[in-house]
Amino acid sequence: MSIVYSINKGINRSIEFKGIKAQYILYLAVGLVGLLVLFAIGYIAGAPIWLCALIVGGLGFFLFSTVSKYSRKYGEHGLLKKTGYRSVPEHIRCHSRSVFFNLTSPKK
């Protein structure tokens, strides 16, 4: 019995999978690959398999819930906008008007 997951995408809309939108799917995929590597490192290091599974399962639950929360809270582009606003200065200060004296207007 195979399970088929549908990816909802309408015309001019972003990809949505199980309520997770756009770039958050990529964040979740990268996080899951990281958890797979973490499990492999723990298993190869000799940690008990139940401990590796418990740690990776807990971190996977935290990852999925965090990504889902950000997807619901910020939407498709909101998280990128939030990080972009962080780099914009609050004030631009100019202590001298000499900067504006040498500006020339474009000649037509």
Structure description:
It comes from Chitinophaga arvensicola. Pfam families: DUF4133. The model has no long low-confidence stretch (mean pLDDT 83). It is elongated, with a radius of gyration of 24 Å. The protein starts with 15 loop residues before the first strand and ends in a 7-residue tail after the last helix. By secondary structure, it is mainly α. The protein has helices at 23-45, 49-74, 78-86, 98-101; strands at 16-17, 20-21. It is built from four helices and two strands, in the order ββαααα. It has a domain at 20-74.
- Biggest β-sheet strands, sense, barrel: 2 strands, antiparallel
**Helical run tally:** 4
The level of helicity is 55-70%
Q: Extract low-pLDDT stretches.
A: none
Strand coverage percent: under 5%
- Radius of gyration from CA coordinates: 24 Å
* Coarse structural class: mainly alpha
Total E-strand runs? 2
Mean pLDDT: 83
- C-alpha geometry: elongated
Helix/strand order, N-terminal first: EEHHHH
In which order are the strands of the major sheet placed?
1-2
Q: Give the termini distance in whole angstroms.
A: 72 Å
List keywords for this structure.
108 residues; mainly alpha; two-stranded antiparallel ribbon; 4 helices; elongated; transmembrane
